Inverse folding.
């Protein structure tokens, strides 16, 4: 992010595939409040604090972390979060529809969903002339019983949701597409999304 802001690095898209189950919590969250820490330690679930905001996010092995580091000087990069969330996530949802044929859609403020099930939790920062857009791509089925024990969900968190329990509120690419997805599939998905969003397939990846 710093290198892009100073011009030392070109606009960059980063894709990382998780090799173990883990949880990140937002910078302002209290781990004692949002996690069952004893359960996480007992079951060897890594947990870390992110440098950005948002709630607790559980990511299973084989899922991925996608980050856009794009200067706001790019003509297709929004300069506000109100513009960036719908622009980036609608394009990403359309890419999933085109590649895999399932009804992915942008859900305000910051989710990609499939018929009410969350597929991609995201967060965004626009600072020092760089849009840093973080996206967790749920690729594989996660053990929702373990995730639910590790990060218990308070009732007020789901009171406005149609789907209340963790297994019904979350989904993944492999479930919705009906196929196993390898690293090459994820790279193709990301490159296609970048091209569709920025009309710039030459972005580093």
């Amino acid at each position: 992010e710093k290198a892009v802001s100073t011009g030392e690095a070109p606009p960059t898209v980063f894709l990382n595939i998780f090799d173990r189950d883990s949880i990140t919590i937002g910078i302002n969250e209290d781990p004692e409040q949002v996690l069952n820490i004893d359960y996480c330690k007992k079951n060897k679930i890594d947990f870390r604090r992110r440098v950005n905001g948002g709630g607790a996010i559980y990511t299973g092995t084989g899922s991925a972390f996608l980050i856009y580091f794009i200067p706001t000087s790019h003509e297709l990069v929004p300069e506000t979060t109100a513009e960036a969330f719908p622009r980036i996530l609608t394009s990403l949802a359309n890419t999933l529809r085109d590649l895999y044929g399932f009804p992915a859609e942008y859900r305000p403020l910051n989710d990609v969903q499939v018929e009410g099930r969350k597929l991609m939790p995201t967060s965004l920062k626009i600072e020092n002339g760089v849009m840093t857009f973080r996206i967790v791509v749920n690729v594989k089925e996660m053990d929702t019983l373990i995730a639910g024990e590790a990060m218990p969900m308070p009732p007020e968190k789901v009171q406005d949701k149609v789907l209340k329990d963790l297994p019904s509120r979350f989904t993944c690419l492999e479930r919705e597409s009906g196929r196993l997805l390898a690293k090459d599939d994820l790279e193709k998905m990301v490159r296609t999304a970048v091209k569709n969003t920025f009309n710039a397939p030459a972005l580093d990846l």
